[in-house]
Amino acid sequence: MPNKKIILFILIGLMYFSCTEKFYPDVEENVSILVVDGKITNESNSCEVRLFRTVNYTDDYELEPESSALIVLYSNDGLREALQEKSRGIYRSLNDIKAIIGTNYWIEIKTILGEKYESYPEQLNPPIEISSIYGEEVQNIIEDQQSNQAVKFYFNTKQTDRDAGNYFRWEYRESYEWHSPFTSSQTVSSHPSQICYPVNNFNYINVFDASNFKIKEVNHLPISTVFSNEVKLLHEYIVDLKVYSTSHQNYIFWKNIKSIHQSNGSLYDVIPANIIGNVSACSDTCQVLGYFEVSSVRASQKSFNQNEFDIEFADFPKECTEFTMTLEDGIQPDRTKYYIIDKTMQSNAIRYTVRLIECYECNLKYSINKPSFWP
Fold first, then answer.
1. Looking at the predicted structure, is the pLDDT value of residue 98 above 90?
2. Mean pLDDT score, 148-155
């Protein structure tokens, strides 16, 4: 059985190292394990498989992409589709394949070294519908028992199909219209803009078991939060939500990863060996971890602004507050990062009053184009 610490390291890797604090485990050397991260859904061009290979921890922290593998997607209705490597370790279908409800899908993998792996067939369940996305005003407890106001966003689901599955997970992201509050004739970029559209992805693991619900409606499931000291709702704020209807095994897989990834105690409170994917090796000499997920998905977006709530939100970005830095004479602040408001000589040093440059030209940090998921 693979070393438990190696398994934990790989599972953190599958989450794209989204922890706020990276964990560096002590692992055995000379262990090579194939890591499979794949998915097919009922969306267009959704079939993608990522292959990685573990490396000696002392040599490299990142997982090594597994290139030049042969991956074939199968279904029980006769589909046979070879995936193509689009970039190192990332394989996709050349054709626009959408998974069909009620159909089983699986993949077979053959590495450049001749090692063979396959996933267990999984059936695509009917999707879980998103019935509403909404915001509620809440009091948020911060340090020293103080509180501030916030809007917490939630969604409700409904399973309209009698044969819909009992398990689902969800992902979400946000975008909003951000305005640089200052202008200047001393621009850094050739086409400065004061209106931009930041996007924030949230890498939290969110899963739900509705198997005990007689009426398949689940309400008040949490997504993003906007605090009163933020400017996200000042103009237009967008929530982009995806809900995946998954198998029971896939639910257990993500639930177990969550128990490790978001544990409040030691990372070893939960035994990593209990996390089992649906990919197996065709030889006892090969080791593999990961999952090829077959899930139906529903996506929904909704826009909000501050006029819909009674909270008084900030009208000035806190990151645009001016601050000072003291540098040796002859050294200036990086003008691609800071706008110089004022400077004062102090013996052999200069005290600069500065702001972040995006407070004048937001395009230096954010996109000037609305994301594709804006309604």
1. yes
2. 95
